[in-house]
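Appendix B, example 12.
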Amino acid sequence: MKREYDEAGYLKQYIFRWHGDLIPDGEKYPTEEYFRKAVPSASREDIDAILSDGDLDVSTPEMEKTLLGAWDEFNAALCKGVVQQHQLTIKRCPKCNNILESPKARLCLWCDYNEYKLD
């Protein structure tokens, strides 16, 4: 069974996997200051929990969802910035326009388009 296509998620995966060297080390992950601005209602403990390696619990499921949403927005902006700044071309399927697995991919994992397949 195929997973649901998530444009922002796959763009992040593509950028981090194939162009991660273009992101300075100090800019790959959101900081505490970023979360303070993005989610002013979050407590220090909640922010620490979301930035930890899973050792701490966020106070409520709603706050966890809000903080993870802010993290997703950070990643989307980061990836968009890398694409624009470096004028990257993201390899997409010519049939469904979804992001392919790699810059050299010839097979789409979403619609099974195969560049080599003759119809």
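The helical segments are 7-19, 32-38, 44-51, 61-86. DSSP finds four helices and no strands in the chain.
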